[in-house]
């Protein structure tokens, strides 16, 4: 995939997920979530070359300083990823994120152990994770699911589900709750799941 196509997809995701988005030029200049993902895409490529792992970590930390968003260069992130507001987002080294995923501010995709193995979550396609949510450990959040604001999720979430609460309880989505996720350009308010 070309760099220009990737940038266009990321800008379209920002436009589609944020009703306050006014133009691609303005979004490219002011959206910290876009800056963080673009820097991550570069750092992740560098991470694939062992000699560049140190510089990749430096780039990730400099991006954290600028944006308030910490994404380890080892994390794998799919297409059209969007972080709304962004401040306080943390994505760990072994996290895997699918396509068309949206995170709000304060989300942690973290680990629960010091093992040098898979210790961070796998997030499926078309998942929305609400503000302040903590998704912890080597668990899977299934495709087309949503995690409510401030939820703490430590167990797998099946596809087409909603996880909310502390600790999170999981329930299937109704058709009405699923409709906003059919079109990835539709704004999704995670509060509607609580």
Strand order of the largest sheet: 3-6-9-12-14-15
Taking Cα atoms only, what radius of gyration do you get, to the nearest Å? 16 Å
Based on secondary structure, the structural category is alpha/beta
Order of helices and strands: HHHHEEEEEEEEEEEEEEEH
Low-confidence residue ranges? none
What is the mean predicted local confidence, pLDDT?
A: 88
Shape: globular
Q: Which percent band covers the strand fraction? A: 15-25%
Count every beta strand, where a strand is a DSSP E run of 2 or more residues.
15
Cα-to-Cα separation, first versus last residue: 37 Å
Report the biggest beta sheet as strand number plus sense, adding barrel if it closes: 6 strands, mixed
Overall helicity:
25-40%
Number of helices: 5
Protein name: Serine acetyltransferase
EC number: 2.3.1.30
Catalytic activity: L-serine + acetyl-CoA = O-acetyl-L-serine + CoA
Enzyme class: transferase
């Amino acid at each position: 995939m070309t760099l220009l196509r990737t940038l266009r997809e990321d800008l379209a995701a920002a436009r589609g997920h944020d009703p306050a988005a006014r133009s691609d030029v303005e979004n490219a200049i002011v959206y910290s979530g876009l800056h963080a993902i673009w820097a991550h895409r570069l750092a992740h490529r560098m991470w694939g070359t062992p000699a560049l792992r140190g510089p990749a970590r430096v780039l990730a930390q400099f991006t954290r300083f600028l944006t308030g968003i910490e994404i380890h260069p080892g994390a794998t992130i799919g297409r059209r990823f969007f972080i709304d507001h962004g401040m306080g987002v943390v994505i760990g080294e072994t996290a895997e994120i699918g396509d068309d995923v949206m995170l709000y501010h304060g989300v942690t995709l973290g680990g629960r152990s010091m093992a040098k193995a898979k210790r961070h979550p796998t997030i499926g396609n078309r998942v929305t994770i609400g503000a302040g949510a903590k998704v912890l450990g080597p668990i899977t959040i299934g495709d087309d699911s949503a995690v409510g604001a401030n939820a703490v999720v430590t167990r797998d979430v099946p596809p087409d589900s909603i996880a909310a609460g502390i600790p999170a309880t999981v329930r299937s989505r109704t058709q009405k709750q699923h409709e906003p996720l059919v079109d990835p350009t539709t704004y999704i308010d995670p509060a509607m799941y609580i």
